[in-house]
């Protein structure tokens, strides 16, 4: 469970301050499939950055499974992210010099998982995202959709409690988007992984079971389907 | 993540921009090449100068009377010479030796007078110790039946306009400080490769001196040639006890400037090599900073997914070090082959002959690099590459993952 309490992020505090996230209280339960939507500059990305422990809020707290991650020190928050949070980026952000298999394996290497377990998990994830045949290809040899599927597999590699995905379909065509959403929905249903997206994409919003709308850093609506 | 994986990623990162890495690697190769060739030339010149001095006039060890160096009076002869000769004759480490009469005086003809040192020698002994007989450029090396022939250096011959068969007079002080003059005829002109030596030394048969100075016997200088120059101190120490009136000196005791140049050379070359490598390190640092700038997003992503600062630091360090380490074997090998080639063939420097002769060096330069220099250069490159890696790595750590990844 993820909970934000009076979460605020203010840029340039003082004279020209911008309230990117303004006193947001929210709760995400295990197994949710949520879209955070809103116009550009509404604070979606900043909200996810704070929830993921990438950015420090100006005030307020973020609790994940009861632990206040805003109180964690630099190295502890890195370890926390590594073990509990999976990230999917808009521009994939795969390591170009590593193959699809190695990109997925990397998270587990960072976690110090033994070789046999790594191999098994990597193969399992490659099958889940339907890329086993392309496991030895480098990112430059994969399409955008395939790269994003590798990024999803990478995010899942550490068996995180939840996955944060920022505009994951922004660079994908319709077929790739549909394919990616199918995979993520299946993972959500079968493995009860919590997904939180920030998106503009109506196709993602349509598939989400909960939609939170942000405007000027505040939640203006929170609907469950 | 284990260190092997980190090394693997770093290695692959080096080859992401092949052209850029190639340019840096080539610059390091040429830096190493330039540095080692500089070392080769310096050692080559120094060894040439040292060998020239040892072969032409110093030999490995010399024995004199202690007072002779201060006064140069011909009465200060080597003490206990028969015992010393006996010891030397029984010593396997000694290749040959000679006995010289040394007179300090003036050489004159109608064109002028010059201060010189006369070496009275037995030619058949002397050719086993020094190579002056190989340096004769006009005339012959004591083949005349006459006793009163003289070999003069090219520089002195030019100054006094001496030709073969020219007459000269040597004037010196005898044991009683009375002036004595001897007449000689030029039999040969030598060019040793050291113009200072050629302008101040002449050779005569020692018989020509003893015949003209009544009651004079003995010798002032005994040059000794050994099987190995490194044995000089060992042999020297064994010869010292034969007489407390004598002074036994190795070549580096006699010619302190040469010995000092030898010692200083290595230190100076390390400084030059370090300057070259520091210059190169700026290029490496610049390249790595560019690479980090290009990969800001990727490094930010690695930080986001949980790669800690220590591993990011190590990854960039490895990449920087790899650039130098890839260049190192190529730089060393190419240097080695070039040095080996020119250590045999040599480089013709006859265009600067006059300058080199003043320096005591011949006109053909043979490269020389002691083996340990290659190891030292390798270690220096390694150290410089580690130092170069620190700044880019620290810069990488300053990347803010939120800003770098933009979307996260």
Structure notes:
The complex is a heterodimer of chains A (225) and B (408). Chain A has a single domain, classed as Rossmann fold. Helix content of chain A is 36%, strand content 27%. Chain A has seven helices and ten strands. A six-stranded mixed beta sheet of chain A has the order 6-7-8-3-9-10. Chain A is globular and about 55 Å long. Chain B folds into two domains: 3-54 and 258-405, no CATH class; 59-251, no CATH class. Chain B has helices at residues 3-14, 18-58, 68-71, 81-89, 123-126, 154-159, 195-198, 206-210, 232-239, 251-254, 256-294, 296-305, 309-345, 353-359, 371-397, 401-405, and strands at residues 61-65, 94-97, 101-109, 112-121, 136-139, 149-153, 167-173, 179-190, 201-205, 222-226, 246-250, 347-348, 364-365. Chain B has a six-stranded mixed barrel. The longest helix of chain B is centred in the N-terminal third of the chain and has 41 residues, at 18-58. Chain B is elongated. In chain B, 41% of the residues are buried. The interface between A and B is medium-sized, with 33 and 26 residues.
Tell me the helix content of chain A: 25-40%
Number of strands of chain B: 13
Helical stretch tally of chain A: 7
Q: Looking across the biggest beta sheet of chain A, what order are the strands in?
A: 6-7-8-3-9-10
**Main sheet specs of chain B:** 6 strands, mixed, barrel
GO molecular function (chain A): ATP binding; ATP hydrolysis activity; transmembrane transporter activity
Pfam families (chain A): ABC_tran (PF00005)
Organism (chain A): marine metagenome
Keywords (chain A): ATP-binding, Nucleotide-binding, Transport
Q: In terms of topology, how is this protein built?
A:
The complex is a heterodimer of chains A (225) and B (408).
Chain A: E1 2-11, E2 18-28, E3 33-37, H1 44-51, E4 59-64, E5 67-68, H2 74-84, E6 85-88, H3 100-111, H4 115-128, H5 144-156, E7 162-166, H6 174-191, E8 194-198, H7 202-207, E9 210-215, E10 218-224
Parallel strand pairs in A: 3-8, 3-9, 6-7, 7-8
Antiparallel strand pairs in A: 1-2, 1-4, 4-5, 9-10
Helix pairs in contact in A: 3-4, 3-5, 4-5, 5-6
Chain B: H1 3-14, H2 18-58, E1 61-65, H3 68-71, H4 81-89, E2 94-97, E3 101-109, E4 112-121, H5 123-126, E5 136-139, E6 149-153, H6 154-159, E7 167-173, E8 179-190, H7 195-198, E9 201-205, H8 206-210, E10 222-226, H9 232-239, E11 246-250, H10 251-254, H11 256-294, H12 296-305, H13 309-345, E12 347-348, H14 353-359, E13 364-365, H15 371-397, H16 401-405
Parallel strand pairs in B: 4-9, 6-8
Antiparallel strand pairs in B: 1-10, 1-11, 2-10, 3-4, 3-7, 5-8, 6-9, 7-8, 12-13
Helix pairs in contact in B: 1-13, 2-11, 2-13, 11-13, 11-15, 13-15
Pfam family, one (chain A): ABC_tran
Keywords (chain A): ATP-binding, Nucleotide-binding, Transport
Domain ABC transporter (chain A): 2-225
């Amino acid at each position: 469970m993820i909970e934000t309490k009076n979460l605020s992020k203010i840029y340039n505090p003082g004279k020209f301050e911008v309230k990117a996230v303004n006193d947001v209280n929210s709760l995400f339960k295990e197994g949710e499939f949520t879209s955070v939507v809103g116009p550009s500059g509404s604070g979606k990305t900043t909200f996810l950055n704070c929830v993921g422990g990438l950015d420090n809020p100006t005030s307020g707290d973020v609790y994940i499974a009861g632990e206040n991650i805003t109180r964690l020190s630099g190295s502890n928050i890195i370890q926390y992210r590594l073990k509990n949070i999976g990230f999917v980026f808009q521009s994939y952000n795969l390591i170009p010099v590593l193959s699809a298999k190695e990109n997925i394996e990397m998270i587990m290497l960072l976690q110090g998982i033994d070789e046999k377990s790594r191999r098994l998990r990597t193969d399992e994830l490659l099958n889940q995202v339907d890329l086993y045949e392309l496991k030895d290809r480098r990112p430059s040899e994969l399409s955008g959709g395939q790269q994003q599927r590798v990024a999803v597999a990478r995010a899942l590699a550490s068996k995180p409690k939840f996955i944060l995905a920022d505009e994951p379909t922004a660079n994908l065509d319709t077929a790739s988007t549909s394919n990616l959403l199918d995979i993520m929905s299946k993972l959500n249903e079968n493995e009860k992984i919590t997904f939180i997206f920030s998106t503009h994409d109506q196709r993602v919003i349509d598939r989400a079971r909960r939609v939170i709308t942000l405007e000027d850093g505040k939640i203006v609506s929170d609907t469950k389907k | 993540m284990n260190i092997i994986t980190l090394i693997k990623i770093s290695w692959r990162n080096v080859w992401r921009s092949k052209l850029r890495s190639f340019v840096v690697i080539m610059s390091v190769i040429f830096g190493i090449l330039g540095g080692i060739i500089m070392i080769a030339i310096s050692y080559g010149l120094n060894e040439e100068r040292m060998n020239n001095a040892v072969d032409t006039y110093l030999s490995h060890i010399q024995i004199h009377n202690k007072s002779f160096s201060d006064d140069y009076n011909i009465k200060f002869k080597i003490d206990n010479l028969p015992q010393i000769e006996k010891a030397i004759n029984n010593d396997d480490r000694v290749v040959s030796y000679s006995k010289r009469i040394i007179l300090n005086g003036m050489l004159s003809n109608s064109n002028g007078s010059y201060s010189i040192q006369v070496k009275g020698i037995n030619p058949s002994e002397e050719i086993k110790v020094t190579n002056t007989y190989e340096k004769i450029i006009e005339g012959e090396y004591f083949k005349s039946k006459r006793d009163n022939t003289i070999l003069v250096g090219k520089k002195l011959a030019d100054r006094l306009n001496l030709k073969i068969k020219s007459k000269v007079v040597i004037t010196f002080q005898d044991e009683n400080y009375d002036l004595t003059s001897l007449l000689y005829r030029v039999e040969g002109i030598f060019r040793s490769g050291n113009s200072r030596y050629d302008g101040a030394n002449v050779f005569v048969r020692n018989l020509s001196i003893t015949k003209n100075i009544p009651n004079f016997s003995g010798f002032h200088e005994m040059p000794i040639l050994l099987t190995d120059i490194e044995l000089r101190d060992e042999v020297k120490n064994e010869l010292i006890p034969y007489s407390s009136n004598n002074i036994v000196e190795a070549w580096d005791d006699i010619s302190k400037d040469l010995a000092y140049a030898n010692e200083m050379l290595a230190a100076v070359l390390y400084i030059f090599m370090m300057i070259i490598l520091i210059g190169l390190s700026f290029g490496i640092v610049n390249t790595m900073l560019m690479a980090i700038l290009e990969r800001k997003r990727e490094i930010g992503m690695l930080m986001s997914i949980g790669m800690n600062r220590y591993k990011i630091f190590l990854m960039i360090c490895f990449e920087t070090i790899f650039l130098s380490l890839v260049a190192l074997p190529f730089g060393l090998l190419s240097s080695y082959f070039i040095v080996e080639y020119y250590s045999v063939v040599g480089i013709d420097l006859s265009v600067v002959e006059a300058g080199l002769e003043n320096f005591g060096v011949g006109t053909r330069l043979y490269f020389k690099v002691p083996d340990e220099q290659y190891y030292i250069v390798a270690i220096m490159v390694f150290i410089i590459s580690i130092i170069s890696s620190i700044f880019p790595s620290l810069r990488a750590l300053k990347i803010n993952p939120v800003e770098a990844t933009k979307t996260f």
